[in-house]
Amino acid sequence: MKKLFNAFVLVLFFASITYAQSYIIESFDTDLSQDNTWQFLHEGPPSRIDYSLNTTDKVEGTGSAQVKFVIGAFHEWGSYAQLIKTLPADATPWDWSISDSLAIWIKVLTPPTLPQNMVFRIHLKDRPTAASNIEEWIYQQNVILDATTDWVELRIPLKILDSEGNTDPNDQGFVIFPANWGGSSFWNNKKFDADKIVGFNIAAVTVGYTPGQNIPADSLEVRFDGFRRFGLKAIPAVIFNGITFPSHIAQVWAWGQSAVEVVKGAGPVPNSNAIKWTQGDEWGNGWTGWGMDINPPFNLAGAWQKDTCQIKLKCPAGTGPLRIQFEGGGGKVGKVFQPIDDGQWHTYYFPLREMEYQDNTSNFDSSAVNIVGLMAQASGVAGRVIWITDWWTGNPEFDVIPPNPPQGILAIAGTFQNIITWQDVPNEEGEKYNIYYSKNPITDINAPGVEVVKLGVAENTQLVEHLLFAPNTNQNVTYYYAVTCVDAAGNESDVSANSAPVTNLAKGVATLSLNPPAFNPDGDLSEWANIRPFRMFPSDGTGHVVTNTRIDGDNDCSGNAYLAVDQNYLYVAFDINDDVFSPSGNPNSWENDSPDLFIGLYNWHGFPHTNYQRGSQPDYHLRFAYNRILGDAPAGVLDTLGPNYYIGPKFPTGYVVEARIPWTALAALGNDNLFTPVEGYRLPIDFAINDRDNTPNREGILTYSPYNEDQSWRDVSRWLYTWIGNKWEPTSVEREDVVVKDYQLYQNYPNPFNPTTEIQFALPKNDYVTLKVYDVLGKEIATLIEGELQSGLYKVNFDASKLTSGVYYYRLTGSSFSQTKKMMLVK
User: Fold this and answer.
1) CA 12 to CA 139: how far, in whole Å?
2) N or C, where is the chain less crowded by C-beta within 10 Å?
3) Where are the domains of the chain?
4) 732-825 sits in which CATH class?
5) pTM for the whole thing?
6) Which residues pair with 503 in a beta bridge?
7) Rg of the Cα atoms in the chain
């Protein structure tokens, strides 16, 4: 069957034509036969490809490709000869997302003898992951090779017509390699991944079908020049999809004492979520806000003149002007608007082309938008809550199908750490992985006892380390691990199968002592001698030098930090080694020699904070300057030199810091809940030591957390953690206010148990009591209660996860009562 001629007018563009937003794909200026990324492919003799570099007849650049295609008579359906370009396996794929058309210059020198049998094809090849097949998408033009021509430009719509494999190629766009041609063996995800292009083919093909007779041999000679992509496609950008931030939102941060978090179920429709923005007012001028780092950046060049930014807000009464803002290339553009302040959801639309320059900036680059934000335009009020959802540009398609769970979860014990590995989910692109651990098998990541190793691990990483810590002493721990996959749209998979439980030794780390020193801020730290320090020394790996900063060994910068608590104060001390002490001279404390403390005052379990939170789970960044204690987050002055603060040099080099900070002062600084220390609370913690060495600028930063990288000031998830006192967890005690006639210690339930059980007892009057656990040899194992209690019925939870199977005894002792009972732990 002869090829059918399409009923269309072939529009050809001659060599004088130029166009904007053009990106060269192949110039044909160099010798393709000497380039190992090119292949000349046919079915063997008599087929062949004669290629030469022509440097005299060209449209642009310094040369063109002169090609003679000779195609033999091989099959009833025809044959081919093609030039194949394939990027090296380790090369970064091409990203053609922004372009809507292709173009190639063609000059036919000798047309085919049987033009009705000859077609021109371009194949585009994508590969979403390194492990994927290379998938081909085909465009076919039936008449461009039929006759001798001068240079003409063939423009090709970069449009996908069919991704199911049911359509033959044509000149209206590209189709996936058809299934009836055997194309399914080349498919990967049956989606044109415009940002993962790994090559292309330029082909001359004989076509048709005559039963029992091969399509006749034929040949033609052509020149090619200037293969390029052009035009601008409007690419939607999703900032918050009503459920979560997509994977390209690399970091969410806040400023001016604002705080943001995603609240499940808070969106305008059932099962949707919303961003809760709690405004601050750090400087008393109403400027406060939050934003996001975008990586990879949004390319909105094609959308800027066409699309609109949509955002839904719910604002309380009194909300003042807000500014929505995009940043790229050093420039900032945005729109100031007055939201409706009636406490109801409203959708706002902002044409991107109407965005205006902000903050006296220029040179905004819409093709590289790396920050998006929302701020109060001098209208912020501390504590005011604004809700945000459904924030995007254009008309995006939403993926609501979660990926499959990762497979092959494996945990391997190392020295004070476990190494967790997994297999990435096939056919996902741009996905991230969340790694969890627990003392018990994990089926629900939100269940009590499930902790986070790391969130947002990039694809192809497939390995993270879990640093194992214990309060004060090295202790064995046993953990299960599980992994979830979060696709590019933010959908999270079900929990993976768990790793086998891994038992390993956790490193005993310094904690906040419950026995503070007799505080005397005189530069003499001898009263801190019985308190274990947080050690930060480059030489032994306990201190970590921030990338692109410099510290020349322990003498240049190292130190110990001490923390203690009582019911009224946080006690802090630093013993810093520094060969040149330069405490002042620059306006900011961090530009001088000074230490910083990062601490969360709450019992942290489960998901970490990212930006700083206020209220019942407050995060603090404190700076110890040469003349005062500064709150950086939240901002304010906590104290100055005097009875509660000292900083000064020590002999022979270095300096000492001593501070006593009331809990009431910290609560007032951020308008937070008053903190009461409890033994067993697990607190987020980090330290940083700034090193200046009497130079104009800070030279080095030494940190406690290896993940700090000078980002702990804005990202709480980079901190490590410690405990108050020596317990892993606070003792859980519940009191029921009922009338009790007699002292009574009840049998624990369940019994036998693994690993937790509940102990109940009754007190007829207020009394000083102890409840302790002993082993069969009479050795005290744990003190569950020790102190004055009111009358009533009590329930106490006992966690024996660190104990071995066997018989244990628990004893309740009061002023005139003592009783002991037996319980059995069976693991």
Assistant:
1) 17
2) N
3) 23-230, 237-393, 407-509, 526-723, 732-825
4) mainly beta
5) 0.69
6) 478
7) 34
